[in-house]
Design goal:
Elements: E1 4-9, H1 13-24, E2 28-34, E3 49-50, H2 53-57, E4 63-66, H3 73-83, E5 87-90, H4 97-110, E6 114-117, H5 124-135, E7 141-151, H6 161-177, E8 181-189, E9 198-205, E10 210-216, E11 218-230, E12 233-238, E13 243-248, E14 268-269, H7 278-293, H8 301-320, E15 324-325
Parallel strand pairs: 1-2, 1-4, 2-3, 4-5, 5-6, 7-10
Antiparallel strand pairs: 7-11, 8-9, 8-15, 9-10, 11-12, 12-13, 13-14
Length: 334
């Protein structure tokens, strides 16, 4: 197998996981890491450390991960795009919708491949949930709900809970429903520091489906759940427990012009196919895309930009107390 020469910019928590994953994956050769803090290099003593990213790019990398604080994503992404180096950019793609679109346009202009690291899509319960929904076997989609809670990690300093956590679920509901978010209402609260610590929102997707969200980092236990209400019942993906549950709706079918109602049936656990860790899945997809398999399964820059734009609208809605439209620009959402 051809080995891709790769590098990682930023050795915080996410960058370290990316680097370890890449170093262990067949077909990938991690040849460079970059961080402004030399102490971070101790985790990768055999990999050359570069403080200057432009110097690292002279290595003719086949792709590079950007895992620095989100405020710096645009600067590094534009360097990679100009050099023609494919990129995997950690979520959020950028701290603002305008910056995310500039990144999208830079890679489009140079014809360079890039993707966004929304690794939640590769969690086994969510991957299977998406497969079942997109197969159409559960009928009409009625509503989505997401809950993402836990203690503050201490490692996120430049954004609040919306761009750190809720952006995952904004991306997930659009992906699961196969439709972009068109408007949002929201409320947030800041307990300390400059950014919000808890956020609640309702997003309206194209076609009218509602998605309800809650995210915070003030809860002393970890909770990660996505519920999808369909005509055939509720599917609940729990990525902490690693389960996908179907609570069926056994109500008899009704005429097309009337609501069929809901009647509870016996819940069942859906067997999940064996799957590797999300970062491993993501880098396998990235490797295979660059070796000719195409971008299937990866989050595009258009999708990443939409998640940022929708989350930005959420923060605007929380600040104004009014429903806020999501700034629309026709990008190829897949």
């Amino acid at each position: 197998m051809t080995k891709l020469r790769t590098g990682v910019v930023g050795l915080g928590w996410a960058g370290t996981v990316h680097a370890r994953t890449m170093a262990a994956l067949p077909g990938i050769d991690l040849v460079a890491v970059s961080d402004l803090d030399p102490a971070k290099h101790t985790a990768f003593p055999d990999i050359p450390l570069y403080r200057d990213v432009q110097e690292m790019l002279r290595l003719e990398l086949d792709y590079c991960v950007i895992a620095t604080p989100s405020a710096t994503h645009e600067r590094y992404a534009l360097l990679l795009a100009a050099a023609g180096v494919p990129a995997l950019i950690e979520k959020p793609l950028a701290p603002t919708g305008e910056a995310a679109l500039r990144i999208h346009d830079a890679f489009a202009r140079t014809g360079t491949f890039a993707a966004v690291g929304h690794t939640e899509r590769h969690q086994a319960p969510l991957a299977e949930l998406a497969r079942l929904l997109h197969s159409g076997d559960f009928g009409e989609l009625w509503q989505l709900e997401t809950r993402r809670q836990g203690p503050y990690s201490g490692r996120i300093l430049d954004v609040g809970v919306a761009l750190d956590l809720l952006v995952h679920d904004v991306d997930l509901v659009s992906w699961l429903a196969g439709a972009p978010i068109e408007s949002v209402t929201a409320a947030t609260r800041t307990l300390a520091g400059p950014n919000e610590d808890t956020a609640t929102a309702t997003t309206v997707l194209r076609g009218g489906v509602l998605a309800h969200h809650h995210a915070d980092w003030i809860t002393p236990f970890k909770h990660r759940q996505v519920q999808v209400h369909t005509a055939a019942g509720v599917l609940t993906a729990d990525t902490v427990a690693g389960t996908l549950t179907h609570h069926p709706n056994t109500a008899a079918p009704a005429p097309a012009d009337s609501f069929p109602g809901v009647q509870s049936g016996e819940a069942r656990l859906i067997t999940l196919p064996e799957q590797e860790a999300p970062f491993t899945v993501e880098h396998r997809l990235m490797r295979d895309a660059l070796l000719g398999a195409g971008p299937r399964g990866l989050v595009t820059l258009a999708e990443g930009a939409h998640a940022v734009t929708a989350t930005e609208a959420l923060l605007t809605a929380a600040g104004t107390g009014r429903a806020t439209p999501v700034a629309a620009r026709e990008l190829a959402l897949t």
